[in-house]
Amino acid sequence: MSEITAEQVAHLANLARIDLSAEEIDRLTTELGQIVDSVAKVAEVATPDVPATSHPMPLTNVFRADVVVPSLTVEQALSGAPDRDGDKFRVPAILDEE
Amino acid sequence: MKKAELMDYDKALELFEPVLGFEVHVELNTKTKMFCGCANEFGQGANTNTCPTCLGLPGGLPQVNAQAIESSIRLGLALGCEIAEYSRFARKNYFYPDTAKNFQTSQYDEPIAFNGQLTIELESGRLVTVDIERAHMEDDAGKLTHVGGATGRIQGADYSLVDYNRGGVPLVEIVTQMIEGGEADSPEIGRTYVAAIREIVKALGVSNARMEEGNVRCDANVSLRPRGSNILGTRTETKNVNSLRSVEKAVRYEIQRQAALLQAGGTITQETRHWHEDTGITSAGRPKSDADDYRYFPEPDLVPVAPSREWVEELRATLPEPPAARRKRLQADWGFADLEFQDVVNSDLMDAVEATIAAGASAQAARKWWTGEVARLANVAGVSADSLVQPDQVAALIELVVAGTLTDRLARQVLEGVINGEGTPLEVVEFRGLAVVSDDGALIVAIDEALAAQPDVLAKIRDGKVQAAGAVIGAVMKAMRGQADAARVRELVLERAGSADGSAE
């Protein structure tokens, strides 16, 4: 059985800026626990001769030449912004007064 | 913002041992960003260099800039690091409007370079070896402007504006090990270390290294250990320390602030602090907390970087002479006294002086002009001296002085002409008609006129009061509009006064 707790889920939700109700936290605690358990099954079949990897493809050194390509126009860049001020994105205040 | 209590610096060192650590971010001068083909240019219109990848829009996929990898490896090698055989990018997750991706693409447990060393020399001659833990690659964040509130600072701002041009620019973050034993030299160690990094990246050509444009930025970690204790104190991380002088001042300030706080029975909060260039103090930012749980994980959209040993050795062969060694060699070659050489180094004029000497000028003349008149004019114009005039022009100017075509005074006028874009020194001399009047005939006419006009002076000279000649020399220089060699005029005045004396008998 996984060790995912409601506190961990609440912490992750806070880090991810997701507002969860108590019911949602309960449900996600169970569901995330099941997912972690499922993934843990993989560890049972993994042997020391299978190295851990973050990529399914055995590729390395895929590079791009340092050549400038056209960027978006300012209008395109800002087209999805909820708010703008001139050519800049406008965002709410970040910190409260000290 | 209330000013913190500070303990006297010497007293603080009596009671505590400072322990330092530095994180220096170097912006690479690649043509494009780290993971997309947007231009890496400073000073462009807001949000003109963005694309779906650096804006973190759905579907944007990163592609690694080959030049950035090469520059990072060369920088790692220049810092004496080992280069990883296998290195990965990772996502550092955080929510802050300086990145639209909601993560920084960085490196976590597999940095490109690690285990380096850099030996720096303090003004006293003391050598300090700084151990480099790692140098890893990452992308820069966008630029925030805080609007409203008291002073444009983040605290109390009404809202913030974001320009993502800098978002995605390649960075190398160089992280030191703990630096112990710095003692009273700790602030100077900070300044000298960052100066050494700046010098190295400049010599490598991997960064523009302009601190005022944020190409080299330093976070300074300071903690205090009570004397006789072996338990490390809690550290603070001061950010936004973006000039060499500020690094020194910020370290000193934190030592004094923490000492006063600890001595008064307080505790240090592990936190990010902001350095304020204007007031010379640090203020508390956010405390280290849950928000620093970055949930790093390997970047799924990028495959590992695995530089072959052959490539690494090829790059090692391209490393320039280490700046510290080059300085020693050049000072010996040029025969400069320590102060003279420091003047050149501190004015950032080593390259300019070297190029001027290569173009034919003597070392002393090159030094004198660059650190003197050129630096003065650059200071007035608010630009760097080496951006004001080319070394070969300065060499040409010096040649005209050596040849006697120009006096120092005229040469300064010619220099202004060159800087104004009037042409080469020789062209300015012709255009402005500034050459020294070296025709003795013209000088003698003027001298005889001046002597005739001031018979009392003539009489004094004849009586052996040679210093009286000054009045005549002045009149002649005025008649020549300054375009005469004063030493030659003096010789001729004495000669003419003497011969006038003879003819009178």
From TrEMBL, chain A:
Family annotation (InterPro entries): Asp/Glu-ADT_sf_sub_c, GatC
Location of region: Disordered: 78-98
A Pfam family of this chain: GatC
Record Gene3D superfamilies: Glu-tRNAGln amidotransferase C subunit, N-terminal domain
Source lineage: Bacteria, Bacillati, Actinomycetota, Actinomycetes, Micrococcales
Chain's role: Allows the formation of correctly charged Asn-tRNA(Asn) or Gln-tRNA(Gln) through the transamidation of misacylated Asp-tRNA(Asn) or Glu-tRNA(Gln) in organisms which lack either or both of asparaginyl-tRNA or glutaminyl-tRNA synthetases. The reaction takes place in the presence of glutamine and ATP through an activated phospho-Asp-tRNA(Asn) or phospho-Glu-tRNA(Gln).
Keywords linked to the UniProt accession: ATP-binding, Ligase, Nucleotide-binding, Protein biosynthesis
Key word Disulfide bond present: no
Gene Ontology terms, MF aspect: ATP binding; glutaminyl-tRNA synthase (glutamine-hydrolyzing) activity
A biological-process GO annotation: translation
Catalytic activity: L-aspartyl-tRNA(Asn) + L-glutamine + ATP + H2O = L-asparaginyl-tRNA(Asn) + L-glutamate + ADP + phosphate + 2 H(+); L-glutamyl-tRNA(Gln) + L-glutamine + ATP + H2O = L-glutaminyl-tRNA(Gln) + L-glutamate + ADP + phosphate + H(+)
Family of the protein in this entry: Belongs to the GatC family.
UniProt xrefs under SUPFAM superfamilies: Glu-tRNAGln amidotransferase C subunit (SSF141000)
HAMAP family, alphabetized: GatC
Enzyme Commission number(s) of this protein: 6.3.5.-
Subunit annotation: Heterotrimer of A, B and C subunits.
Name of protein: Aspartyl/glutamyl-tRNA(Asn/Gln) amidotransferase subunit C
From TrEMBL, chain B:
Domain of life, source organism: Bacteria
Domain Asn/Gln amidotransferase: 351-497
SUPFAM superfamilies referenced in this protein's UniProt entry, alphabetically: GatB/YqeY motif, Glutamine synthetase/guanido kinase
Entry keyword Protein biosynthesis: yes
Stored InterPro entries: Asn/Gln-tRNA_amidoTrfase_suB/E (IPR017959), Asn/Gln-tRNA_Trfase_suB/E_cat (IPR006075), Asn/Gln_amidotransferase (IPR018027), Asn/Gln_tRNA_amidoTrase-B-like (IPR003789), GatB (IPR004413), GatB_Yqey_C_2 (IPR023168), Gln_synth/guanido_kin_cat_dom (IPR014746)
EC number: 6.3.5.-
GO biological process, one term: glutaminyl-tRNAGln biosynthesis via transamidation
Homology family: Belongs to the GatB/GatE family. GatB subfamily.
Protein's job: Allows the formation of correctly charged Asn-tRNA(Asn) or Gln-tRNA(Gln) through the transamidation of misacylated Asp-tRNA(Asn) or Glu-tRNA(Gln) in organisms which lack either or both of asparaginyl-tRNA or glutaminyl-tRNA synthetases. The reaction takes place in the presence of glutamine and ATP through an activated phospho-Asp-tRNA(Asn) or phospho-Glu-tRNA(Gln).
SUBUNIT field: Heterotrimer of A, B and C subunits.
Protein name in UniProt: Aspartyl/glutamyl-tRNA(Asn/Gln) amidotransferase subunit B
